[in-house]
Amino acid sequence: MSRFAIDQLVFGPDDVDLAKSPLAGQFDAKTFVLGAFNPALTRLPNGNLCLFVRVAEALKQPIVDGKIHSIRWEHGGYVLDGWALDLVDTSDPRKFLIRGGRWRVMALTSLSWILPVELTPDGLEIVDVHYDKAIAPQGSYQCYGVEDARVSRLGDRWLMTTCSVSPERHSTTLYSSTNGLDFVFEDMVMDHQNKDMLIFEGLIGEKYWAQTRPLGDLYFAYPPGSEWRGGPSINLATSPDSLHWKPHRQPGIRPHATTVSTARMGGGTPPILTDAGWLTLWHGVEPKEIVGIYRTYWSILERDDPAKLVRTVHEPLLEAAPDLTAPLEDKMYVRDVVFTTGIADAGDHYVVASGEADLACRITHIPKSVFRT
Length: 373
Description:
By secondary structure, the protein is mainly β. Helices cover about 0% and strands about 50% of the residues. Belongs to the glycosyl hydrolase 130 family.
């Protein structure tokens, strides 16, 4: 059971109308919603909240004539590609690995696009689903999908980062809006496998700041006895204009050597300013089977120098909630996953948005007092 009084799923696969999908009618094969999850969250000028939901749309019958197929954007439409079954590893339901090369090369079992879902001010009821404002692939640099949006508001401008997937690169792309709902493409801002880019909701020293998370297959070890563990970490970057980013030379949030719960980690919610400093919610992953156990943690960063940690709490803030996904048991394909991606101020508490089990969108009301302990 959740430790918070208000903690529920608000949007899931059954709430998506695929007749209004950007993929509808594009090829001769049926699809289904593998997951509607990992939503960005922001407050609109009318006071309502808005989720920007990652809709992972997958083929109902991916294996045909001895080949496994995936969906790809091409020249304004969508096509299907097929790989011989003896060339692939399908042990992970989210992707399949192409055997035979020196590098790990994979294809996805779904293509993702971003769907704005407007909610009541408390985030608990759906007001409207804005299919006409969906964000879908528009270039070869995102031909395998647009994933995991994060939205930050800075004054009268909203900035959205997304992960764009293609064989060219796994990049971060930036969108902007003047009303929090209609987003326009700006540009590619981070290169290959720099995921979970979170723009701070406010300038520091007249600069934009962001958390980033570069990925790779090789990391260097800290010396024996270090309090840190080698591996993925949450780094920092700065920009004069939100388009051109420079890595910050000081490290950000690093995995601790004493816990396996942060053997892998990455950013969650855009950092927001509190009296104590910048509040950031992030995910830590404990190794388990293929996917691992995803939990949400939190830290406070120094107001004027976010490379300095004011406080990090090692106990999880949120964990996967099987009681919430029990009604969706027939759709479950991963477990032990909560992936927090959005936060909004609501007076004496925060409304926090997460992806639950890579399947649905979870809203939790967390009292501000929790972050003063």
